Amino acid sequence: MYPEELVKPMRDELINAGFDALYTNEDVENALSKEGTTLVVVNSVCGCAAGTARPGAIASLGGEKVPANLTTVFAGVEKESTQKAREFMMPFPPSSPAIALFKDGNLVHMLERHHIEGRSAQMIAQNLAAAYNEHC
Fold first, then answer.
1. Strand 98-103 vs strand 106-111: parallel, antiparallel, or unpaired?
2. Which of 64, 75, 109, 110 could join 96 in a cystine, given CB atoms 3.0 to 4.6 angstroms apart?
3. Mean pLDDT of all residues in 16-27
């Protein structure tokens, strides 16, 4: 587990952009039981989360179509909610960072760490925007 003072700015980057932090199993279940689209960002302390995943997820929200619900869990910090979110992301293996789009509780688009590493925030944003155009 990472100390709160280390992860708070990383969590707040998404919260300040309109994402709801999910801390418990119940938080995740409630978020993913909502009708419509829900984006889940599996946040992380790694460099690709800071350099591309968080900025890409935030930049993806500038288009006409965006998810109705924006959420985040923090891998290595919020174990309970992260594990529950990953259950909904099956059959994809645990990955952090990761970004998943759900529609009516069903996984419709997934970016795993290997889709994020080595790509720019703009590429992540474009990938997500295309998914929003299809599913939102």
1. antiparallel
2. 75
3. 97
